[in-house]
Amino acid sequence: MSSSQYRLVTHWRVPGTPEEVYRIIDEPTALVRWWPAVWLRVEVLEPGDAQGIGKVVRYLSKGWLPYLLQWTSRTVEKEFPSRIVLHASGEFEGEGRWFFRADGPSVDIEYVWTIQANKPLLRYLSFLLRPIFAANHRWAMASGEESLRLELARRQAQTTAELARIPAPPPPVFLSQRRRRRLGLDESQR
């Protein structure tokens, strides 16, 4: 494995059903609303077939570190409500695999991200900064678990009072208003 190849495995456990979580993860344009710490812009380029196989989505994402990543995904496999497989291209090349499994009142979620980093910063500095880049991914995924818990709580809220008590998801870090404007990001996208 070259120094710019990564295999990153994330495990989440959240209250809910595989069906609920699958539907949330399978709706990429909603990522900017419920997981804004990472997903700055998401645009569906091709809808794919009736099940969403072949769907192509373009992303602008970031983690804790102040660099941005632009890439696309193509949905290559889906098995409701247990698995979604994406092929990534652009500043990443590789595959992301989501797995969902019921465990009582909770869902065990595994995400396996196997990629080659193509962004020059990542490709040329991975030999030296691999632990930092991997920690950046872990930070992004931890914010995703927190954001998913909040999204599930919003969807499961029974009253407006319950809904009002649920905090907003964590925002992106190191993203100034000036940079946000330069990228064409504004609150209307959320």
Structure, described:
There is one protein chain. The chain contains five helices and seven strands; from the N terminus they run E-H-H-E-E-E-E-E-E-H-H-H. The chain is an alpha+beta fold and 190 residues long. 32% of the residues lie in helices and 37% in strands. It is globular, with a radius of gyration of 17 Å. The chain has a single domain (5-181), classed as Alpha-D-Glucose-1,6-Bisphosphate, Chain A, domain 4. A seven-stranded antiparallel beta sheet has the order 1-7-6-5-4-3-2. The protein starts with a strand and ends in an 8-residue tail after the last helix.
Task: Lay out the secondary structure.
Blueprint lengths: L4 E11 L2 H8 L5 H4 L4 E8 L9 E7 L5 E12 L3 E8 L1 E12 L2 E12 L2 H37 L3 H5 L12 H6 L8
